[in-house]
Automatic annotation (TrEMBL):
<keyword id="KW-0997">Cell inner membrane</keyword>
<feature type="transmembrane region" description="Helical">
    <location>
        <begin position="97"/>
        <end position="122"/>
    </location>
</feature>
<keyword id="KW-1003">Cell membrane</keyword>
<dbReference type="InterPro" id="IPR007498">
    <property type="entry name" value="PqiA-like"/>
</dbReference>
<feature type="transmembrane region" description="Helical">
    <location>
        <begin position="50"/>
        <end position="69"/>
    </location>
</feature>
<feature type="transmembrane region" description="Helical">
    <location>
        <begin position="143"/>
        <end position="162"/>
    </location>
</feature>
<dbReference type="Pfam" id="PF04403">
    <property type="entry name" value="PqiA"/>
</dbReference>
<dbReference type="GO" id="GO:0005886">
    <property type="term" value="C:plasma membrane"/>
</dbReference>
<protein>
    <submittedName>
        <fullName>Paraquat-inducible protein A</fullName>
    </submittedName>
</protein>
<keyword id="KW-0812">Transmembrane</keyword>
<dbReference type="InterPro" id="IPR051800">
    <property type="entry name" value="PqiA-PqiB_transport"/>
</dbReference>
<keyword id="KW-0472">Membrane</keyword>
<keyword id="KW-1133">Transmembrane helix</keyword>
<feature type="transmembrane region" description="Helical">
    <location>
        <begin position="174"/>
        <end position="193"/>
    </location>
</feature>
Length: 214
């Protein structure tokens, strides 16, 4: 069965910034509409994605071990980690808030770590296994990335609610900073990964990038 020509066969490249198709037959270096640099594929996609992902994983450990907030109620205060905060909300009947924080703080980062690692390993091995499903997996990772800061928003709302009712005070702790860094670096990892590599040989793409840069 004949397949339609690919963009590369037609010497077309999609600008990563504005999305305009650009003719690469004359080897242009910049998009004629927005001036962004043109590349057949994202430069050093696998290397940068691994770097961001491992950095996020390193920050994920203190984000869960260090306290994220200190709650003072009626003169007595206690530091809470993410997991202890989930248990505390659950024990006090706020199971909906506990579930939101657990999903956004524990489940979502874990899913992103496993999914991106799977995509990176299979691309590096030039695997032809379940390419369509892996493409859908990447789109799912992008989708859940939009909700990564949901638990931080919930903590901020709970803090405002507690102080508004004069029941006590809630102060942020160092763990919330590490969790924010986890969110940032996992989003950067997802943005750095080029899903088109799922369908092609990454070694050929690296050689093509080197030839284009020359």
């Amino acid at each position: 069965m004949n397949s339609p020509p690919t963009a590369r066969e037609l010497n077309l490249c999609l600008c990563h910034t504005c999305g305009q198709p650009c003719d690469m037959s004359a080897a242009p270096t910049e998009c004629d509409r927005c001036g962004a640099a043109l590349h057949w594929r994202k430069e050093l996609s696998l290397t940068r994605t691994w770097a961001y992902l491992l950095t996020a994983l390193a920050f994920y450990v203190p984000a869960n071990l260090l306290p994220v907030m200190k709650t003072t109620m009626l003169g007595s205060g206690a530091d809470s980690t993410i997991m202890s905060g989930v248990l505390e909300f659950w024990q006090h009947g706020a199971w909906d808030i506990a579930l939101i924080i657990f999903i956004a703080s524990i489940a979502v980062p874990g899913i992103k770590f496993v999914s991106l690692a799977l995509l990176l390993i299979t691309v590096q091995r030039n695997s032809q296994w379940a390419r369509k499903e892996r493409s859908k997996l990447f789109r799912f990772v992008e989708l859940i990335g939009y909700w990564s800061m949901l638990d931080v928003i919930v903590v901020a709302l709970v803090a405002a609610l507690v102080q508004f009712r004069a029941l006590g005070t809630i102060e942020p702790r160092l763990g919330i900073l590490f969790f924010g860094l986890v969110v940032v670096f996992t989003m950067l990892a997802a943005m750095s990964f080029d899903p088109r590599l799922i369908w092609e040989n990454p070694h050929n793409e690296e050689r093509l990038d080197d030839a284009t840069q020359r």
